[in-house]
Design brief:
Helix content is about 30%, strand content about 15%. It has about 200 residues and is an alpha+beta fold. The chain is globular and about 45 Å long.
């Protein structure tokens, strides 16, 4: 079994699909979210712990992923971003695509994509070595995480409960990000703290 597992990992690496090892993951729901520092596409240094006292949403992003396009082309992601930014929530979109991989862009292209999509994230952060993505165990784009004002990780998983790239499924889906933030901000129990993410693999 051990040899079979190693063989599968080698095949995935050969195909350009890198996996996240269990020993690389530091994030765990109901525990303090691992702190990190990344630069945004404009060169500004952004540190997670600087936002203590606020809710923070982490969204793993790849603008060329069909599942990401589903939520941006429909304006679903931007609507949620703006709704919660108006409630003083910080929204960090993180790109862990490695140089040369899908979703990795230079700063000017990132700015063009943000403007074209009318994206409303607080910051677009660049994690090209994949360290932060692997720290959180980010597997897909999108993969969503929510940090509360005490810096506890209170959610990790999919954006909603319908794993498709079809825009028409958005209205039928239960949006976990909205569900968790609504419950947490109203001091109510969180029903779904972890769910299965869906989308394109993160291009480490």
């Amino acid at each position: 079994m051990k040899y079979l597992k190693n063989f599968v990992v080698l095949i995935l690496i050969f195909l350009g699909i890198q996996t996240v090892r269990a020993d690389e993951i530091l994030a765990s729901v109901d525990k303090i979210a691992p702190d990190f520092t990344l630069f945004d596409h404009k060169g500004k240094k952004v540190k997670l712990s600087d936002f203590k006292g606020k809710y923070v949403v982490l969204e793993w992003i790849n603008f060329d992923c069909p599942f990401v396009k589903k939520h941006y082309d429909s304006k679903n992601m931007q609507t949620i971003q703006q709704t919660y930014k108006n409630l003083d929530v910080v929204w960090l979109s993180i790109c862990s695509s490695a140089p040369g991989k899908q979703g990795h862009f230079k700063a000017d292209e990132i700015e063009d994509r943000i403007k074209k999509n009318e994206a409303k994230m607080s910051y677009y952060l660049i994690d090209e070595d994949g360290k932060v993505g692997k720290m959180y165990g980010a597997k897909t784009t999108p993969h969503m995480f929510i940090v509360d004002p005490n810096q506890n990780l209170i959610y990790a998983g999919g954006i909603d409960d319908i794993a498709s790239s079809k825009q028409e499924d958005i209205e039928k889906a239960n949006n976990y990000v909205v569900e968790v933030l609504t419950a947490a901000m109203n001091n109510q129990p969180i029903k779904n703290k972890t769910t299965k993410p869906y989308g394109c693999s993160v291009k480490y």
